[in-house]
Amino acid sequence: MTKFIFMAFMILTISSVIKALDSTNTRIVGGRETDITKYPFTVSIRYRTTHNDAYRHQCAGAIYSERVVITAAQCLVDIGAIEKLMVVAGANSRTGLDGILYPALKWIAHESYSSWTVDYDIGIIIIDNKFDFSHLKISPISIKESRPIEGRLANVVGWGYREEYGPSSLNLEEVQVPIVNSDVCTNYHGPGEITERMICAGYASGGMDSCYGDTGGPLVFNGELVGLVSWGRGCARPNFPSVYTYVYSLKKWIDDTIAANM
């Protein structure tokens, strides 16, 4: 998506503008194909703008409970009144019907989410029917209650671009990336860019990272959900680790929002 920066917006910092441009549709570079049985909590979120359109993969998410998916807020804002969401669980393919389809009943983005700062980048989708947890390819994931130690390897999963300018992967892929200290990440991205609701991961040398096409996808450490793909400067660039929503920092919002809407 291309945006033009007008002089009227110069009151915003240049770094915030760049971040807003780079934040959407992030995904996997330098990874390898994997199987959904290894990440059965991962779902494809697909959108349809008219009744005649096919559903198309746009974001990813993680199954939290029998009717709830956690994803990025940017996947849920500005959805038109006639648009529909479909959650596909148990799927290896980004475009096929190898998974089980679950229509979305409602979706809620965090009320403090900002497309400029990409802070509070979290939301939930409530599906119409319960996930079938008897299926080997479908199960929930718990939220890790602490940040992994700097340098520990976490896994990112998704279907998006294999390199910065495409193409997207047709099948689910994974990549391992090291957790980056928030102060170090701030040095890379600039003062004020990294908040307590974010966590960074990536190699200083680049080459392996998330990229365009899988915003909301899970960052997983020891089988627990740590983050959601949120924003970055391009894909797999040296000295620009990707930034993820730190899910535990927003767990109270998740649980309170579920309680208020179910």
UniProtKB/TrEMBL annotation:
Every Peptidase S1 domain range: 28-259
Keywords: Disulfide bond, Hydrolase, Protease, Secreted, Serine protease, Signal, Zymogen
Example of a GO cellular component annotation carried by this entry: extracellular region
A Pfam family assignment: Trypsin
Coiled-coil regions listed: none
GO BP term, pick one: protein processing
Listed InterPro entries: Peptidase_S1, Peptidase_S1_PA, Peptidase_S1_PA_chymotrypsin, Peptidase_S1A, Trypsin_dom
One of the record's GO molecular function terms: serine-type endopeptidase activity
Origin superkingdom: Eukaryota
Signal peptide stretch: 1-20
Name of this protein: Putative trypsin eta-like protein
Annotated organism of origin: Haematobia irritans
The organism's taxonomic lineage, starting at the top: Eukaryota, Metazoa, Ecdysozoa, Arthropoda, Hexapoda
